[in-house]
Design brief:
GO terms for molecular function: hydrolase activity. It comes from Helicobacter pylori. Keywords: Hydrolase. By secondary structure, the chain is mainly α. It has one domain. 67% of the residues lie in helices and 0% in strands. α2 runs antiparallel to α3. It is flat.
Length: 46
């Protein structure tokens, strides 16, 4: 699952979250970036 610390990331502004994802593509925590992408996709559907 996702740590409580990492969950805070999901509540960032979309623009900041996108920059965050770009940085994390090169990191080892791919699961976190996928969680953010899913969260952003959820926003688009609203």
């Amino acid at each position: 699952g996702i740590d409580t610390e990492k969950i805070e990331v999901l509540f960032l502004e979309r623009s900041k979250a996108l920059d965050f994802i770009m940085d994390f593509q090169y990191a080892k925590t791919t699961g976190l970036s996928l969680a953010i992408l899913w969260h952003l996709k959820k926003f688009k559907n609203v």
